[in-house]
Amino acid sequence: MKRSAIRSLIVAALPLFVFVVILMSKTNKVYAALPGEDGVIVSVEVPADSAGSVTQIVATNPDTGTTTTVATVDSENAAIESVTVSAPSGTSVANQTNDVVFGQVNYTDNEDARYEIDLKKVTIDAEGNPTTSVTDLATIPSQNGYVEYAESEDLSYSPDSSNVLATSYFEGEGSWTQLDKVDTATGAVTNIITDNTYNPTFLNGGYAADGTIYFSQWHPLSGGEFPDYGSDIFKITSGKTYADREQVTFTDEYDEVYLDAAPDSSTLLVYCFADWERSSSIVEGYYKVDTATGNITYVATDDSDRLAFFSPKGNRFAGVQDDYRNFKKVTDDEMVMPQLATFSTNGARLSGLRAINAMHSYLGFDSTFPQMEWAPKLAVATPPQVLGSSTTVSKTPVLQNTGSTAALPSLIAGVVVAGGALAVAKKQEN
Predict the structure, then answer these.
(1) How many angstroms separate the most distant Cα atoms in the chain?
(2) Nearest to 99 by CA among 88, 109, 115
(3) How far apart are CA 416 and CA 51, in angstroms?
(4) Range list of β-strands (E), 19-53
(5) Band of the pLDDT at 401, cuts 50, 70, 90?
(6) Do residues 410 and 428 touch, judged by C-beta distance below 8 A?
(7) Which of 342, 428, 345 is nearest to 384 (CA)?
(8) Which residues contact 287 (CB under 8 A, 6 or more apart)?
(9) pLDDT tens digit string along 182-238?
(10) Buried b vs exposed e over 145-154: b needs ≥16 C-beta within 10 Å?
């Protein structure tokens, strides 16, 4: 059974290969890249020297590959499974912080649940160093009775940092997936969707920077009966409910199972399985989806690099390139370590940062998706200069706690003096 491996990870520290830990699950990772400069990449990992009982949150510098440990869980009865990062707070890179919320599954075996999902919170600086201790935020309540098994599939911070969207999978009397909104100040949990239909594993959601919630979901195609079902992408605009959802893609020949919102909310990076019963020519892999039109453009195949998420600047991707799974790329007994890498937005590899023992989700076939998110960072403002032969304008910082970029108002006045002209730049900040 797909989920037996994670049960073993939580209940008992069984020996695991040090090059990677595979979580035998269906997780469809969804992230929302919040605008800003490219900060640290925050990931869920298993230390290379761990026997399987240790899970960590690790921050990686995207330019140097250097790492900082943010949080650690060392227990045979608990494991970190998901993570999300807030928009930056502060007035400069020197004093900025980001809040990190992570999902931890605990073996409890109480009267309500054998497993439960707890959300934890910690604050980091611009380099990924923790500035606070880990605190409890919330426990995700089951919407369908006793929980025999649970997974924290995804977390996604809202642009204003007021809440986190949590996607959680449960098994008990049947199986179901929940999409819940968690207040980051009070820990209050509000259910948005509970899917216990034929295939609830396709439900997975996350925020875009404009406040829209995008999610993939298994649904009837053209109102037909099974097997006329498939997965498409839907959205709930800010202030609306699930009843007001709008369908974004209408791709009967594809089953969308992964999406990542670009920082300008115009594009989704989507992983699509092919429905070969409808078309034998479909290429399985990554596509870009125009959020306004639903049109899709091919990016990369499943046998290529794993593209996981946009950078906050939106000009590159990052993810795990795990060539060891593609045996045609491995010769003799050589085993290629998975690499945390960056890619251009057309899928070309830019740089390999470091070997990584990433926590992976096993989404059918050979598809793997790292559980990570790229932290947005405040821009470094350059001081205004007197206008000469060229004009210099200070760089735009990201507004704290919004995840949006807005220009600081500037007033430029020209003062004409007899016999010559003196241009004076005056900058007035809000």
Answers:
(1) 88
(2) 88
(3) 74
(4) 21-23, 30-32, 37-45
(5) very low
(6) yes
(7) 428
(8) 254, 269, 270, 271, 272, 296, 297, 298, 299
(9) 999 999 999 999 998 877 888 888 899 999 999 998 888 765 555 677 889 999 999
(10) eebebbbbbb
